[in-house]
Every structure is written in C-alpha cells, then in structure tokens.
C-alpha cells in the first residue's frame, strides 16, 4: 500500500556537481570544501546524508555554462556563478559506492538527450545501486544549452512539454521491455534469457523513433521514481500526470498551502492517488549551536558573499533572457515577463509574492542568495519546530533542503536538527526498505504490456 501523506516527512538534499551549491556565493564561505572535482567530496556528503536517513541525494544540472548575460560566460567564470557542471553519471556512481540506502537522483533533459540513453543510464544506476535511482525530468531552459547540442534556438515552452510527454512514455516502455523473469540463467541448457520475454518497442512518434529493446534488464524498482519541478500551468499538469516527487519554490507557508491543495487536486483529476505523490518545497536551513550563531551565519550568507553580476548571470541563464541591457533598479513589468521564454512560472511567482515594486535587483537576489524560498534559522530544536509547523499544516509532505555551503550545512542539519525531528515522531530513525520506492512508500509498478 502507498504511504499516506501524514506518516513521516520526506527529506531530499539538493546538490550541484559544481563549485557551488544552489547558493552562488557558497564557494567563498570560509569552511566550504574546495575539492569538488574529487569523487571523495561527493562520497563524504552522501555518507552524511545517509547518517541522517535522507530519502534522496538529488543533483540539479544544466547543459551549458551561464552565458546569456551580455552574450558571454565571462562573469559566470569570473565570479564563480556555476561555471562548472560535472557529468552526473560518474558522480552518482561514486555516491552509490559509498552508501547503502540513500536514494540517488539526477536531472536529465528530455530536449537534448535521446530516450534510449536516459533509459539505459538510469536503469544501469538502479541496478548497480540496488534500486536507489530517481530521474528528474526537465525540458531544459535556454539557448546556450541548445547551441551546445548543435541547435540554434531552444524549443518554445509548450513544445518542450509536448516532446517531454512522448519522451517519458518511451523511457517507461524501454524500462519495461524486459519482463521481470526474462533472465533464465540455465547454464546446463545454455539458455541465458527467454526471447519471448524481451520485447521490441517499434515506437514511431512525432519526435522519436525507437526500436528497442533496452540493453539493460528491467530496473529493480520496475520504473524509477520521477521528479518534476515545473511551476507554469503546463508544468504543473505534467507533474500531476507523471511525478512521484514534486519540487516547489513557495516563499511562505500560506502560499505553499494553496499550491499544495491545487497540485493535489490536479493529481486526483489525472486519475492518480494524490497521497502517493510528495510535494516538497525547497528550503534553506541554517542551524547553529545557539540561535545567535545561526543568525550570524544567515547575515553572512545574505549580505556578504554574492556579487550582483553573478546574480544577473544566473538570472539570465534561468530565464533565457539577457538582462545586461537593464539597470538593477529597473522594474520587472508584465511586458518584461511576457518576453521571457525560460522559466516563466518562476518569474511570475516571485513578482506576485514580493511586496511593493519588483526590481531586477530583487529578482536577481532571489535567484542567487537565500531569498527564493523559506529559511529555517536557529538551533536544531527551533529549525525542527519550523519544519513541523509547515508539515503538520499540510503545506508540504517534506522538504528539499538546499545547502548554503558544503559539507557543513548538511553536517549541521544532520547532527543538530535530525535528532529533534525524530523526537517529534515526524522523521524516521532508520531506513525501512531496500529500494528508494520502498523508502518512499511507493508500490512497484506493474509492467506495461
């Protein structure tokens, strides 16, 4: 049976295989580790998260260096605004080798990778990790990514989702192209597998032609848990149809409650069990041994480490719009939002929920500092209390925790806040299942015939 929403919260750690976390000034924080090009860096963080019984270690990704702003990547390189993005296949393999229970999720684009490649990569990871892989389905964001793959311009918003619909259907069928009992392994008879239980797709669609079958047997989880974070109307509909975990970015609990109820209704309308889908807002946690220590850290993160040019480089990347021709004090108008072809829901959401006139300076700061989501700041007990309040008022089913710096942010949370969550009975003390699906309370899906 699928776990009901009021059991225990789900916790996801938001990662970048990069010189920075989501917080673009993290590389400047004095205790941030600088060995992000060494696999042991990711293994250390993974072991900390498994100690804290997190459900999932999740990696965001982009397929281009930020280069929309001013038509150049110079500011991204100069100010460390995510110029580095390692290939996630190797990173997740390293994390899998260092852990036993922790889920391992990654972003893979439906716009620039072919379905067979994605299906094979994730099925392989699921087998080698013992059933712990998850896929974040993204349609990709900007023209810089397009040019890295030999395309002059990014697809329009709705067409990206049309392509994604067919893409995910093909991937699901590839995962199911082997029946669970296809491998016979009869050494005496010399029969390795039953060909009647391994199936071609012979798919011919609008965007893809895929013969199949997949060269990897059906994954241990059957089909991997799907992550989605679309904030536009089309993105929310896509998430309602496909996602097991939905990442959100709501700045207040009241807004999160409305979003939660709306998304659950969409899930129900799509014919799925809304209780089996986890809605998880991204939050920052700044945990200190005392409240004053935590607040001092917060002040450093907010005001001292992010250069405005790094903010604009990231804002241009995430919206696929060059803001170099604007002043930081220019207002973000409805006309400007209409001209943005990237993450439309993000821009609209920030504009709606910022008090007073929304300037480019404020919007950029939301993208590069700690302003785009709630911050839970204080001692372990205080942070746990804030999380409990959100969880028990049905504004979420858990949280995506974005690190301010690594590995310290997760170390502080695991050592100081996780014990408090366990005391309150809203978070596990140990893993209950072997696979990620089992730990999320999700049933293993039947094979598509």
Automatic annotation (TrEMBL):
Top EC class, one word: oxidoreductase
Location of the Luciferase-like domain: 34-393
Name of the protein this chain belongs to: LLM class flavin-dependent oxidoreductase
Superkingdom field: Bacteria
Enzyme Commission identifier(s): 1.-.-.-
Keyword Repeat: no
An MF annotation (GO) of this entry: oxidoreductase activity
Keywords assigned by UniProt, alphabetized: Flavoprotein, FMN, Monooxygenase, Oxidoreductase
UniProt family annotation: Belongs to the NtaA/SnaA/DszA monooxygenase family.
SUPFAM superfamilies xrefs: Bacterial luciferase-like (SSF51679)
InterPro entries in the record: Diverse_substr_monoxygenases, Luciferase-like_dom, Luciferase-like_sf, NTA_MOA
């Amino acid at each position: 049976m699928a776990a009901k929403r009021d059991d225990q919260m789900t916790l996801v750690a938001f990662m970048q295989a990069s010189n920075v976390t989501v917080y673009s000034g993290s590389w400047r924080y004095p205790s941030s580790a600088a060995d992000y090009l060494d696999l042991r860096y990711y293994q250390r963080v993974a072991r900390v998260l498994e100690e804290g019984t997190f459900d999932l270690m999740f990696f965001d990704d982009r397929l281009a260096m930020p280069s929309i702003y001013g038509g150049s990547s110079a500011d991204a390189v100069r100010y460390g605004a995510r110029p580095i993005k390692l290939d996630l296949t190797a990173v997740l393999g390293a994390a899998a080798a260092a852990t036993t229970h922790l889920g391992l999720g990654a972003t893979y684009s439906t716009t620039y990778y072919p379905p067979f490649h994605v299906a094979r990569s994730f099925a392989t990871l699921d087998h080698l990790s013992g059933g712990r892989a998850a896929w974040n389905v993204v349609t990709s964001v900007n023209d810089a990514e397009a040019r890295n793959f030999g395309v002059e311009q990014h697809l329009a918003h709705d067409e990206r989702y049309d392509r994604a619909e067919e893409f995910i259907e093909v991937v699901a069928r590839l995962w199911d192209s082997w029946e669970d009992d296809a491998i016979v392994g009869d050494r005496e008879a010399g029969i390795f597998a039953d060909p009647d239980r391994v199936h071609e797709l012979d798919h011919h669609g609008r965007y893809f032609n895929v013969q199949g079958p997949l060269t990897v047997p059906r994954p241990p989880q059957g089909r991997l848990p799907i992550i989605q974070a679309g904030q536009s109307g089309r993105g929310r509909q896509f998430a309602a149809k496909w996602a097991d975990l939905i990442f959100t970015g709501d700045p207040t609990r009241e807004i999160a409650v409305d979003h939660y109820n709306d998304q659950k209704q969409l899930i129900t309308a799509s014919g799925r069990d809304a209780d089996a889908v986890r809605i998880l807002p991204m939050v920052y946690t700044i945990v200190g041994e005392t409240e004053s220590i935590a607040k001092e850290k917060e002040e450093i993160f907010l005001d001292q480490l992010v250069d405005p040019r790094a903010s604009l480089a990231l804002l241009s990347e995430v919206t696929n719009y060059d803001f170099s021709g604007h002043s930081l004090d220019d207002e973000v108008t409805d006309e400007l939002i209409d001209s943005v072809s990237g993450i439309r829901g993000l821009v609209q959401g920030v504009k709606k929920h910022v008090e007073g006139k929304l300037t480019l300076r404020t919007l950029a700061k939301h993208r590069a500092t700690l302003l785009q989501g709630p911050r839970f700041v204080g001692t372990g007990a205080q942070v746990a209390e804030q999380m409990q309040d959100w969880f028990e008022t049905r504004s979420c089913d858990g949280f995506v925790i974005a690190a301010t710096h690594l590995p310290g942010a997760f170390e502080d949370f695991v050592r100081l806040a996780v014990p408090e969550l366990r005391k309150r009975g809203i978070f596990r003390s140990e893993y209950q299942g072997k696979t990620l699906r089992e730990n999320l309370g999700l049933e293993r899906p039947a094979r598509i015939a």
